[in-house]
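Working notes for the structural subgroup meeting. M.R. asked for a predicted model of this chain before we commit to crystallization trials. I am recording the input and output together here so anyone reviewing the notebook later can reproduce the run.

Input as submitted:
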Amino acid sequence: MAAHRSAADAGLPPSGLRYPSVHVTTVALIVRCFNEEAHIGRLLTGVARQTRPPDRVVVVDSGSTDATVSIAQAFGAETVSIAPETFSFGHALNVGLRRSSDASLAVFASAHVYPVYDTWLERLVAPLSDPAVALSYGRQQTPPGGRFSEQRVLEHWFPAVSVPRQRHPFCSNANVAIRREVWDELPYDEDLTGLEDLDWAKRALDRGRSLSYVAEAPVIHVHTESFAQVVNRYRREAIAHKQIYNEQHLGAARAAGLAVANIAGDLHAAARGRVPLGRLVDIPSFRIAQFLGTYQGFAQAGPITDVLRRRFYYPPTPGTTRAHSSPGQNLGSEIDYETHA
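Returned structure, recorded in token form:
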């Protein structure tokens, strides 16, 4: 069996990178992770190259058995561990926020994202200079050669045009910044199986705050999930969606119709864009998994047991593929991960 990769194997500096001293407005980056040794080094490399680095980095680990923690520590990040049986997305965020209590702004990034430009953090937190803005979130893109259907999903959810004042609660904690003073009043819901970001944003909007979407702060979001993991992701998000908006439903016929419509739409877009045939193979699989999981989530009856909750958060981990940064607009210097990482 191959040994887990050490920090040295990942090409990290022997003494680690340290983050700057506290500014007047402090920014903490909080990263939730579990067995992310293939990705977290790339994220932290991009973070260290920012024009405005965070004042501290806190990695909340929920039981990694690989080199995730040692890689994070080699970059100078603080690490805090939580027991796997206590994990939920909301709980991990609350733990990270309590650990970084001196920061007035908190940025959340998934361990398997990485910023495209060195201005990512600077642009992401900029809208929070307005006291009315509780949350700002950035664009997400697939890596080059990523799943075509997922690329279409992200293009729809995260368009190329910014929205300075957004009045609906959609957002994503994979690439987001929030104001701590709002979190002090509104901790994340630790019982939700997903969509804790949407729930938090909805409650902030209900209190008269606003949200901001920053298309100029993009990250590459790397997903290497199996069919079962895609089903699992959309299932737990649908369960949470039903809890937040309990008047909404999705029947089997409607789910099947949406799957067929989206498969057809993807194939049509791929034909117009002359997408290579090799990228079309997984379109039906991804869309079926997406809407099968969504249907199962809406159909879920009764409370979420601890066994089911653990299944949502700790599915088997498939093999990973290496991601490459994608070219973009002139929004800052594009980070050269091949040289630095």
